[in-house]
Amino acid sequence: MRSKLAKLAVACVVAGSFLCHGLARAQSAEGRSDWPGAGQLFVGTNYQSVDRSNEQIERDIARMKQAGFKVVRVGDLSWDHFEPAEGKFDFKTFDWMMDEMHAAGLKVILDIPGQPAPIWLHHKYPGVDIVTQNGVQLDPAERYMDDISDPDYKRLLARMADMLTKRYAKHPALFAIGYNNEIGNGFISYSEADRLRFIGWLKKKYGSIETLNKAWATQRWSRHLNTWDEVRLPYADGPGPFERQLDLRRYWSDVTIGTLRELEAIRRRNAPDKPAISNLWDSAGRKGFDYLSTYRDYVSYGAMGFYPGEPLGAAFEATMMKGGLSTPIWFNEFTAGGGGYYGTKGRARMWAHFGLLIGAQAALAWTYHSHHGGEEQALFGLIDHDDRPSWKLDEFATIAQDFSKLEKLGFPRMGQPKVAIAYAFDNVIASEPKGPSNTVKQYINTPYLKQAHNAYEPLFKDNIDIAVINIGHEDLSRYSLVIVPGLYLLDKAAADNLRRFVAEGGTVIMTAYSAKVNEHNQWFDTSLPGRLTDVFGLRTNEFYNTGEVMTKIGGKEIKGDIGYYEVLEPSTAEVLARFTNVEGKTPSITLNKFGKGRAIYVGTPAQPQIMGPLYRQLYASLGIEPGPKTPDGVSARLVEGRVLYVNATGEPKGIAIDGTMTGVLSGKRWTGELRLESFGVDLLEK
Predict the structure, then answer these.
(1) In this structure, is the dihedral angle defined by the CA atoms of residues 37, 43, 47 and 53, taken in order, positive or negative?
(2) What range(s) does the Glycoside hydrolase family 42 N-terminal domain occupy (predicted)?
């Protein structure tokens, strides 16, 4: 079976990215017993060995070993280190370093350095240069300035990936493979070749120019297309019709996903016993990509760069990278240096334990040594610019000691959430289009990510595990409650999945702004919410902004600070609550019984003041148990009878506890109250 799959993998790379989809599904990496799972935690670092002499590398490795590190991520951003000129490869120094890592007991994540492409590649193959929407060809001045759709780039990247994975597949230090650091943060390109590739994508998607005209609403304002050659690349930054902007971003998303699938096929062929753990950036503003619809095709573990600003947003993004996987989260880059905010003592340790709390398995410091030049020369690492260890190295050594204590005590946390929040790449683009003439922004006055965070916040504060998923691509039967905050674009797959989920006994909560446009970013020509009016038993009508809204939930008056509201017209739905400060006291929350389940509609955008009381009325009936009670700024989870507490604030916090408990990390005994210092953490047991 393996030989047949290997042959298919080769064919997949040769034929193109879209054929890889079925192969990746058939070879799902999730849950392999020989890959890191329960009882294993990892602390390590990112290492740019190209900046270091052999003497420095030997000293660095000795310090890593002494600090208790287990894993080092190397290779990223270093294509020309391995291939200084086309077809001329040099692995001598890297071979030696891999041997040194193994001798020290360190494992290596080898990142395929697909970006940035070397200068020689840009010089010889200018098709890899970025062209702006104004037609200006750009030099590769920044590391993300590669046109990854270019055939020469794709060919040479595949060769590099093939050579690296073949060369090191059996090396005893190799632990995992990563792909194209921070892929997703590249630039959209507007060359003539890009236009033709975009047209090819449109032909495959729509089949005929007539179908494309309908999807792009070209009857509006004299935009009808008579031939494919009349298609131009839409302006991602505007102006332009929103239907076209959405398809442009989808196209570049597919290019990115195609690159990942091709690299994954190479890994499966050459190093099938090593997992794919890549530092991906699906939410990057420049392009991004549809990770949540496709991640099982090219990841074994959800992985990311973790540079948290505040706990709620950090938890949401990390949870989104996990998606519906049963494997834990990897922080391939983890906040370590930079002075100021990130340089506060104790903060990195706190975030590491915060990561454990939400299901992480690894924290790899970015970066090991402070950079003397380049784009991040002011970013302080674990080793200062004068080659002396900073206090940060000691802090990561402490994290390594903590993880060593905890890894046999129920970590990493592998639980299955009962609550899921819907999130979709298409919806990000559709609900926030670019351009000066933007009626969508006038209509949606609360950004989509803010709505998602608002829906997430009460659950987060109740210390409940939540999944963030694309509801059109997951088995919703795994969840008791699915929340759909402001899903402006509702495609057929998501609508069908929600309908089935409710009919079979699930509970869904949908908020205002949802299900207004279809797959083509055009408003439904039916009653709203589109495709689901019967499931929710109502019609949403006009919308108003009253500054703030007031409603009663459970007999308590609630004030929402987002004043937008929709006029709900129930048919079969029951009115659970009404607005008390608007004309007619229209319904604010409705509930419709559909099949065996319940469909709840909230007439305002998601806001925690309203969502929290609503959730808490549902917990008992859904079998959802809140986690340990904590004050604001402190998060907690029950882990095999023990409780992990993390204080993410810069001030001491007192937390009420039941009886007397002992801190596994602190060694202290606590009776009645746990006292955590600023950024303090502890695991309590009876």
Answers:
(1) negative
(2) 52-405
- Is the pLDDT score of 7 beyond 70? no
Distance in angstroms (rounded) separating the CA atoms of residues 615 and 620: 10
DSSP helix/strand/coil, 574: strand
The string of pLDDT tens digits covering residues 563-615 is 999 999 999 999 999 999 998 999 999 999 999 999 999 999 999 999 999 99
Distance CA 348, CA 354 (A): 10
**Is the pLDDT confidence value at 338 over 80?**
no
Residue in the structure block whose two tokens are 């095999």: 640
Please state, in angstroms and rounded to a whole number, the distance separating the CA atoms of residues 83 and 114: 12
Torsion of CA 611, 616, 621, 623, to 10 degrees: 100
Q: Print the domain residue range for 545.
A: 419-622
Residue 6 lies in a domain: yes
Please report, as a single letter, which amino acid is at residue 550: M
Neighbours of 612 (CB within 10 A): 19
To 5 degrees, how large is the angle CA 575–CA 578–CA 584?
A: 110
Give the pLDDT confidence score for residue 9 in this predicted structure: 40
Q: Dig out the tokens for 185 from the structure.
A: 């943060």
Burial tier of 56 (Cβ tally within 10 Å: 0-12, 13-18, 19+)? middle
Q: Examine residue 248 and state whether it is found in any structural domain, yes or no.
A: no
Contact by Cβ (8 Å): 28, 294? no
**137, part of any domain:** yes
Do the Cβ atoms of 551 and 589 come closer than 8 Å?
A: yes
Asked if residues 277 and 303 have their Cβ atoms less than 8 Å apart, the reply is: yes
Is the separation of the CB atoms in 366 and 322 below 8 Å?
no
* Strand duo 642-647 + 653-663: pairing: unpaired
Q: Are residues 613 and 547 in the same domain?
A: yes
Q: What are 626-666's pLDDT values in tens digits?
A: 999 999 999 999 999 999 999 999 999 999 999 999 999 99
Instruction: Answer yes or no: do 386 and 485 share one domain.
Output: no
Distance CA 633, CA 675 (A): 13
Give the domain-ending residue among 584, 602, 622: 622
Interval 418-444 mean pLDDT: 88
Instruction: Tally Cβ neighbours within 10 Å of residue 361.
Output: 26
Structure pTM? 0.94
Q: What whole-number distance in Å separates Cα of residue 686 and Cα of residue 679?
A: 23
Hey, what are 246's tokens?
A: 């959405």
d(Cα 342, Cα 651) in Å, to the nearest integer?
A: 16
Beta bridge partners of 74: 110
